[in-house]
Design a protein that fits this description.
Three copies of one chain form a homotrimer.
Chain A: H1 2-5, H2 7-27, E1 28-30, H3 52-69, H4 77-101, E2 109-111, H5 113-133, H6 139-163, H7 172-189, H8 207-229, H9 234-262, H10 270-275, H11 279-283, H12 293-323, H13 331-351, H14 355-358, H15 362-365, H16 388-418, H17 442-449
Parallel strand pairs in A: 1-2
Helix pairs in contact in A: 2-4, 3-4, 3-5, 3-8, 4-5, 4-6, 5-6, 5-7, 6-7, 6-16, 7-13, 7-16, 8-9, 9-12, 12-13, 13-16
Amino acid sequence: MQQNAGVSGYILLLTVQFVFIVIFGIYTDYDTDLQPKNGTVQAEENFVIPKYPHFQDIHVMIFIGFGFLMTFLKRYGYSATGLNLFVAALCIQWAILMRGFFEMEHRTIRLSLANIIGADIAAASVLISMGALLGRITPIQLLIMGLIEIVLFASNEFLQIELMKIVDVGGSITVHAFGAYFGLAVSFILRPTKENAKPGELESASYTSDIFAMVGSIFLWIFWPSFNSALVDGPEQERAILHTYLSLAACTVTAIIISALVSKDNKLDMVHVQNSTLAGGVAVGSVVNLMIHPVGALIIGSFAGLISVLGYRYLTPKMFEKGRIADTCGVHNLHGMPAVASALFSAIFAYFATKDAYGDSLYTIFPGMKNSTIDDNEMIIGGFGRSSEKQAAFQLLAILITVCIAIVGGLFTGFVLKSPTFKNLRTHELHKDDIYWETPDHQEYNRDEHLQ
Amino acid sequence: MQQNAGVSGYILLLTVQFVFIVIFGIYTDYDTDLQPKNGTVQAEENFVIPKYPHFQDIHVMIFIGFGFLMTFLKRYGYSATGLNLFVAALCIQWAILMRGFFEMEHRTIRLSLANIIGADIAAASVLISMGALLGRITPIQLLIMGLIEIVLFASNEFLQIELMKIVDVGGSITVHAFGAYFGLAVSFILRPTKENAKPGELESASYTSDIFAMVGSIFLWIFWPSFNSALVDGPEQERAILHTYLSLAACTVTAIIISALVSKDNKLDMVHVQNSTLAGGVAVGSVVNLMIHPVGALIIGSFAGLISVLGYRYLTPKMFEKGRIADTCGVHNLHGMPAVASALFSAIFAYFATKDAYGDSLYTIFPGMKNSTIDDNEMIIGGFGRSSEKQAAFQLLAILITVCIAIVGGLFTGFVLKSPTFKNLRTHELHKDDIYWETPDHQEYNRDEHLQ
Amino acid sequence: MQQNAGVSGYILLLTVQFVFIVIFGIYTDYDTDLQPKNGTVQAEENFVIPKYPHFQDIHVMIFIGFGFLMTFLKRYGYSATGLNLFVAALCIQWAILMRGFFEMEHRTIRLSLANIIGADIAAASVLISMGALLGRITPIQLLIMGLIEIVLFASNEFLQIELMKIVDVGGSITVHAFGAYFGLAVSFILRPTKENAKPGELESASYTSDIFAMVGSIFLWIFWPSFNSALVDGPEQERAILHTYLSLAACTVTAIIISALVSKDNKLDMVHVQNSTLAGGVAVGSVVNLMIHPVGALIIGSFAGLISVLGYRYLTPKMFEKGRIADTCGVHNLHGMPAVASALFSAIFAYFATKDAYGDSLYTIFPGMKNSTIDDNEMIIGGFGRSSEKQAAFQLLAILITVCIAIVGGLFTGFVLKSPTFKNLRTHELHKDDIYWETPDHQEYNRDEHLQ
C-alpha cells in the first residue's frame, strides 16, 4: 500500500512548493499600488479596489463551482472537492510566476489584485482538464499535469492576447478550449485497453451526489457574468455582464427542453442540467464585450445549450466507444465545442466591426486595429492597423493555434503521466475515493456502495 | 409514458423561447451607459458598476437560495434545484420584456444592469408561488404559471411603484405578498378531492435533504440585506442594510425559541429554522429605508419570527384540513403574513413621516408627497402633494389591490392549469422526482426511499 | 423530556432578546452617514458603500462557513447549521451593544455598516469556541456561553486595539486565539470523568457529512482575504488580500501533503483538508497589512499548514488522553496555535519595521509609534512614540494577555455552565441531533445511524 500511495510523489510536490517559495522570494515584489505611499496622505476612507468583488465571484467559481460540479460521482466527492482545492492551490502559485515571467520589469514580477485574478483564471483551465480525467488518474498525476499545463497555458495566453492581439475577454479560446482539448488529449493517451473500455462501475451519480453537484453548477451559473467581465471596464464590462446573463438564461431554457426531448422516456437528465446550462457562458466568452446586442446573446446561448446537450447524448458515448477517449465530466460538451463556437462567433463579429458601431472603443477592444504609429515599441504578430477582415482571420487562427498547442501539449503530458515513474490506476480503482482517502468505516462503505 | 412527459409542452416552451428571441431582436437595445463612448476617452480604470455586488447577491438568492430551500423534500431535490433554475431562467427573460414594455422609449427597451436586477426580483415572485405548489404540479404547468404570473407581476409593480407611488423598497408588497397569494390561489383551484386530502407520503424531509435546505435558507438569510437595499442609494441604502440585518437577527432568535416552545417535546423544528428565521427580511421590506430606527427593526423582526412559527404550527395544517389549500413550503408563513404585516408597518411609518425627521429625503422616499409643480408631466394616481396621512392610506390600498390581483390572477391561472390541456399529477405522483427525472437505478431508489 | 428540553432556558433567552430590544431602543441611533441629508441634494447615483462587499463575504463566512464546517459529524448537522445560526444571531446583537458601549458618544451608540462588520467578527470568536465544544453542550449552555464570551471579547478587543494599540488587522489575536483558548478552557471544566473519557460513538463523519463540511470549509477559504482586509484601506487592504491569498495557497498545498505523509497508509485525511488548509488565513492575520512581502506570506502559510496537521495528528489525541480536554473540531490546531504563531510573527515584523520600509504609513499601521504631540487626548497604554522594539514587546504582551483573559474567562464560564442550573449532557447524548431536534422518523433514524 505504501508504494501505491506515492510517498515519493508527495515529497516531490513538497519540493515544488519549496521551490515556489524560493522563486517568489527572488522574483516577486508588490506592485506600486500596494507600496506604502509617502508624502501627501490621501483620504482613503472611500477607497474601493474596483475589481475585488469580481475577483471574489471568480474565486467562488474556481473553488466551490468546479469543486462541487465534480462531486456528481457517487464515490468521488472527497476527491472532487479536496483535489480541486489541492490542484488549484498549487496551480495559482505557479500561474502567478509563469504569467508573471512574461510581464517582468527589471527582473521583478510586481503583484497586485490583477495577478491573482489572472492566476485564478489560469487554474480554471487545469480544472477543466481535470474534469475530462476525473477519477482516472492519481492525485500525483493530476498535480504534475497541472504544473505542465500552466506553463503551456501561460505561453499560449501571452501569444494570443499580447502578441496576436486577439479578442477573448471571457477566455473561451485561451481557457475553455485550451483546457478541454488538453484534457482530452491526455485522456486519449491514458485510454483503457480494449478489454477494459467499459463505463466504470462507480462512474455514475447517487441521488445525493447529484444534488451536491448542483451546488457547484449553480454557483458557476450565477457568477459567470463576473468571469466574463473581469478583464474589461466601463461600458464593455456592463455589456459583458448583460450578455452573459442573457446567454445563460436562453441556454438554460434550451438545454433543459432539449434534454427532455432527446432523453429516454422524455425525462430530464441531471447531467445536462448540471453542465449544458453553463455552455452559454462559454459560447459567449470571446464576444462578450462586442456589440452583439441582447438578441445576439440569446441566440448564442440557445445554440450552445443545443449543441451541448446533443454532445452529451450522442457524441461523448461515441468518442468513448470508437476512440476510447473517456471524458468523465463531458468537458468537450461544456467547454470544448462551445468554446470553438465562441471563436467562430468572434471572427464573425470582428469581421463586421466598424468604427460606426464601436466609436473610439474599436481600438481598445481590437488593439490590433489601432494605427501603428501610436504604439511603435509594442510587438504585434500581424502588425497594427489591421482591417476588420484581418482581425477576423486572426480570431480563427487563435482557436486553431490554441487547440493545436493544447492537443500536442496534452499528448506529451499524457506520455509523461503514463511513464512507469507514476502509478497508473487499474480498472477497479477508478472513480473511488478510498484509494487515496481515509473514508468512514471501510466495511460500511462497501455496503453503502450498493445502496444509492 | 411519452404522453405523460409532455413532449408537446416542451415544444411549446421551446417556441416561447424562440418568440422571446424575436421580441428581444425587435424591441431591445443597450442603455446609453453600455454604448461605446466617443470623443473624450475617459480613464476607466477605477470604473465600478455601483450595484453589481448587490446584483450578484440577489442572483445567489434566486438561484441558490430559493433552489436549495426547496430541497427539503426527501425525493424532490432534482426538481427543487433544477426546476428552480429552469423556471427562473425563463421568467427573467420574460420579466425583462414585460417590465420593459412599461418603460419603453421610442419603442425600444434599453437594457442595463438595472433591468436584470429587476428581472431577478420579478422571478422571486414566481419562485415564491412555486413554493406553495412544490411537488404538486408538473414542470410544464409550473412554467406556464410563471409566464402568466410575470405579466401580472409587472403590471402590478408598475401600478404600485410608478402610478400609485407607494413605498416598497424591499418588495414585500409587490413581490412577497403577490407571489404568496398568487401561489395559494392556484393551490386552491388545484386542491385535492376530499378523499385525497391527506399529507403526501413523500411530503417530508430526510436527514440529508434537510441539511441541503439549510444551504438555501442560510444564503437567503445572508444576502437579504442586498435584496432589500438594491433599489435605493446613499443613506437610504445603508439604513436598509442595517435594518434588514437587525430584523433578521431578532427574527431568528425569536423564531427558534418559539419553535422550541410550541413544538412536540419542546424540540426544535427544522421547518421553522429554515423558513421562519427569514420572515424578518420580509416583514421589514416595505419600511426598510424609512426612519424606523434600529429598535424598530428588532421589534418588526421579532414579531415576524413569532407569527411565522405560529403560522407553520397552527395555521397551515388548518388551511389544509378545512380548505384543502396545500402550501408545501409554507409560503404563507414566510412570505404572505409577514408581507401583509410589512404593508401595515409602512402605513404606520408613512403616517408619522415628517419633514423634520426625513429632511429633503422625504420627497425622494415618498415621491407622492412632492409638490406637484415640479413633476407636472408625470401621472400619479392620487396626485402629488400628498399628506402623510394620505400616503399611509395609499400604502394600505397597495397591499389590498396587490392581494386582490394576486388572488384573482392565481384563481384564473389555476383554472388554466387544471384544464385538460395539461397533465395533472395524480396522488401517487406527488413530490417525486422520478416522474420527470432520470434518477439513479430505479430499484435502489425505491429501496432507498424507505431508509431515510 | 419536557424538563430536559429546557423550557425555562428558552424563556430566559426570550427575555434576553426582549432586553436587547429595550437597550437598543435606549442607546442606539443611526450614524451620521445614515441620517437623511438636508440642503444640497447630492447626486447619489454612483454611491457605493465601500466595505459592503467585504461585509457580505464575512457574512457568508460566519453563517455558511462556520455553520457547514461543523456539519462533519454524522448526526449533528441540524445543530451545526441551526445552532450556528441561532448563537450567531443572538451574539451579533449583543456584540453591537457591548462593542458600542466602548465607543459611545453622548450615551448613544451610532450604528453604521462598520458596527455590523465588527459584530460579525465578534460572533466568529464564539463560533470558534463552539467548535471546541461541538456536540458536548446543550443549546442553552451554548447561548449562555456566547453571551458571556462576547462581554470578554469586546473588552479585550478594546484593550488590545484601542488602548494598547497593537497590530492585529486579521484578528488572529483578538478573535482566533481568544475564541480557541476560551473554548478549550470551557471544555477543560466540562471534561468527562475518567470512565467516560473515550471518543464518542457518533463523534465521526459519514461520507455525506464530510462533503457538507467541505461547503463550509471552502467558503471560509475563499472569503478569508475579505476577513483579513476588512478593517484596512488603500494599499494596506490590497496587501492584506494578496497576503491572505498566498498564505492560504501555500498552506493548502503543505497541509494536504503533510496529511498524506503522516496518516495511516499515506491516505489523505478529510479532517486535515477541511481544517488545516485554513490555518494559513489565521497565521497571517496579525501581519496581514505589514510589509511581509509575497514570500513571507508563503512561508507563514506553509508553516501554518504544517503545525496544524501535526496538531490534529498528534496533539489533539494527546490532549484528550492526558488532560481529557475534548476539542471536537480541533480549534486548537486551526485557530489556537496558528494564532499564537501569528502574534509571534507580528512581534518580529514590528521589531524590524522602519520608516524607510513603511513611509508615512508607519504611523497609521502602528499608531503607537506616532509622535505623542499629535494625539494628546487619546489614552494609550505604553504611550505614544514607541520604538519598533517596544511595539514588538507590546505584540507579545497582547497575545499573552489575550490568552490569559480567554482561559480565565473560559474557566469561569465552564463553572457557570457546569452548575446544576443547567442540564449537562450525558455520554449517550453527545453529538446527537435528536436530543434537541425533531428528526425524520425516529425509528428509521436509528437504523440509518448504523449505515454510514
